[in-house]
Amino acid sequence: MRRRAVIVGLLALVCGAGPVVAPAQPSAGLRTVNRRRLYTESRFAARVLAMLEARAAAIREENATVTAMLEAEELSLTQRRAESEPAAFRALASAFDTKVVQIREAQLRRQRALEDWAAAEERRFLRAAQPVLRSLMAEAGASVLLDERSVLLALPELDLTDPAIARIDAVLGDGADDAAALPEMISLIDAAAGVAPVPGIDGQDGTLDAGDMSGRPAPVGPDIPGLVQP
């Protein structure tokens, strides 16, 4: 009788304990990717960066030429100041200042053109990558893909960044086939061509031979973000 009472009591404890709760599982409907890494670590972005770096080399070469030209013209102005009439010198100085302003404006236009091109290439990458990401989501049984940079905390196994990069590289390659050409490089020298040169330099019209200007450092004007600087 006593044994029966013990058994009944144990059954009562088991029945009253409620359902057993299984450990929480990661949500099958959510996955994350690092949107920045998705692009910057792709073959597509490597091509874009290589093209920008090649353009940067051309820019540095022209900047050296333009810097030497402006330094020579400025030196000529300084040397001629004492022997020039004030009004004549002001006209020469004004022409030089106008040339410098036009060169800087050309640099800014060139910088904006490259930035716009790079941004357009990234947008093209993201559009082309969408079918690949949808395929990965379907394979993972996910209905939502979040940028992990906007997520406070997530389990590592939810991240699809590495497999997404590998799959996108395999499908898109470097994206060169449909790539837009780099914008034409605005010549800084041409930008100032409409301004009268400062006379009296090397006995010419104020324009130095580009062959005599090579190897001069210090680019003129703002650098281009994202490019390798000298």
Task: Pick out the low-confidence regions.
Answer: 6-17, 20-24, 196-230
Q: Measured on Cα atoms, how large is the radius of gyration?
A: 33 Å
Morphology: elongated
| Main sheet strand line-up | 1-2
SSE arrangement, N to C: HEHHHEHH
> How much of the residues is beta strand, in percent?
under 5%
Taken together, the total number of domains comes to 1
User: What is the terminal separation in angstroms?
Assistant: 95 Å
Fraction of helical residues:
55-70%
Explain how this protein is built.
By secondary structure, the chain is mainly alpha-helical. It has one domain. Helix content is 57%, strand content 3%. A two-stranded parallel sheet has the order 1-2. The radius of gyration is 33 Å and the shape is elongated. The chain starts with a helix and ends in a 39-residue tail after the last helix. Residues 6-17, 20-24 and 196-230 have low confidence and may be disordered.
Q: Can you tag this structure with a few keywords?
A:
230 residues, mainly alpha, two-stranded parallel ribbon, elongated, disordered C terminus
Task: Detail the topology: elements first, then pairings.
Layout: H1 2-16, E1 30-33, H2 35-40, H3 43-80, H4 86-140, E2 144-147, H5 161-172, H6 188-191
Parallel strand pairs: 1-2
Helix pairs in contact: 3-4, 4-5
Task: Provide a short characterization of the protein structure.
The chain is mainly alpha-helical and 230 residues long. The chain has helices spanning 2-16, 35-40, 43-80, 86-140, 161-172, 188-191, and strands spanning 30-33, 144-147. The chain has one domain (28-202).
